[in-house]
Amino acid sequence: MDFFRSQDIARRNTVRLVVLFLLALLSLIAITNLLIMFALGVFAETINVPMFERIDWRLFAGVTVGILAVVGFGSLYKIISLSGGGARVAEMMQGRLVVSGTQNFAEQKILNVVEEMAIASGTPVPPVYLMDEEAINAFAAGYSPADAVIGITRGAIEKLSRDELQGVIAHEFSHILHGDMRLNIRLIGILHGIMVLGMIGYYLMRSAGHSRRSKNGGNIAVVAIGLMVIGYAGTFFGNLIKSAVSRQREFLADASAVQYTRNPDGIADALKRIGGNGAGSVLENPGASEISHALFSNGVRLSINSLFATHPPLEKRILRIQPGWDGSFEVTEKPQRSGSAGASGSSAASPRADGTAGLALIGALLAQAGNPQEADLQQARSILDSISPELLGAAHDPFSARALVYLLLLDSEPAIVQKQMALLQQHADAPVVAALEKLQAQQLNIAPEIRMPLISLCLPTLRQLSREQYPVFRSNLVAMVLADGKISLWEWALQRVVLHQLDAVFQPHNALHHQRKHTVHDLAAQCATLLTFLINAGDKPGVGAGPARDVDAVMTQALASLDLPITTVPLSRKNSLEEINAALDALVALKPLQKPAFLKACAACIGADGVASVQEMEIFRAIAAAIDCPLPPVPLRDRVTPGVGESS
Q1: Are 166 and 117 in contact (CB under 8 A)?
Q2: For 119-162, what is each residue's pLDDT tens digit?
Q3: Cα–Cα distance, 481 to 493 (Å, whole number)
Q4: Which residue numbers are catalytic?
Q5: Average pLDDT, stretch 88-112?
Q6: Element (H or E) spanning 495, and its range?
Q7: Domain boundaries in the chain?
Q8: Which listed residue, 131, 166, 547, 573, has the most CB atoms within 10 A of its CB?
């Protein structure tokens, strides 16, 4: 499925969700009022009076306000409790964070699979949480790729082969990439309010049981039974909404998993394992009902209302993937597919490419947005294999991960490096500085094409920082960027990617997922600010290999491609880091179908000097990721020449 159109469909589904929620709320109001009026004998006393005259409208208004208050506060409470993103959902499911370096083979296997899929798709590596359940199930949760997590059961990592796990994880990454995950977490918050009435009835019933000898015990029981009836109605409407929103997206995620891995047997065999597994996919955790729509397979036992199940039947899902399936859930063991990177092509850089070739390559990358292929997975393995053990180990250690980010910001000028190190010695933790000094010996081993993957590998580790450690790390990172008094494209891209991902976790109140979506015309000033910066902040002074270009003409062309008026913003003006980031913060809220045009305009500005370099292509991917449009790695066979100062 087209990534941008899929994101737009997910956004429209949010509107559909709100409409269904309002209809369910109106139904609950009507049912509750009818029950209360029957209980009070309102209708019996006025049997010969027309319907609308029989209704006690003051009572109706009071009951309606009460329901709106209960449902509203219930939803608001849940939404606030989930404001931390996917990690809150994983904690609700009693998930345990899986840390790299574990001696458990199955746990390390799932971490490797998740890392490969993240690098192949261009998303930050999400943390993995393990649920201690025998069932085979998984979920992806979060508002955006920045705060996403993967949850998976012990049964899944121990009973599934690597190819089957890859199929399950590819399915979950489809939800991350195509906007389903945001919709799923909103469903949890909104539907919780509908369920609250039934929960109140349940606790009132227990209270009535303890006070059944008192005069009020019977009255409490009547109210409790009524609320429980309303609660069952809420459950019915909740399941109806989940089914209406979720089931078709599950088919699409299965299809995407096959497209990503080019291995239909992987996900099909995982589904067969569920069918043949004694525990199936049903979770024992009581919170499973709340996130049932976000799971890989049905997480709750189906009853007579299975018509409203959140997932299609296993048989239908398998037949969609393998039309010739014989109906047996027995899985024939297959040799695991090779993890070599031979399919990706040579790692040598191809000849210098001009701006036209670079723009054509960017167009090809945009066409692959949200749809990584098997070649991208092979390349992700190749990239991981090319990273030295010292750097990989550093990315997975809380102290060394910070040091590794600082290492990637060290300037090429010795005097600036001394200033940066002095800043860190004054403000950073001593173990971090010691780790950085040790890692400096690895600086020559960091080729341009592995810098962004290294950042991605660091992110789940950096999410483990404490609330006190993160502000220190954040201020140190910004200080290192500004140490030489100017901002290069690479420095800006690195700090933008890191802070965009981590701010969503540590500063959720500033998160962008609640913003209304805009067009480029709504954000014309922000577009002009960012395009101006990209033209001025080239990382290749003195290359001179491509034809000289009139930067004013480039800006005019970029704005014209967005159908924006020519701006009066002077190209010579230097933007502050705050201004540039504020502009991009606003542009995150672009409507999905507006993002490809904006990214093409960015590409034209980056290539204004007529030469596309490896570093600039990676920076373009960073810009795309910053507006929640992850792109796969540049294919090795298509890589363009390194720019001046870049490793070849």
Answers
A1: yes
A2: 988 888 999 999 999 999 999 998 888 889 999 999 999 999 99
A3: 10
A4: 172
A5: 91
A6: helix 489-506
A7: 1-331, 351-386+470-638
A8: 166
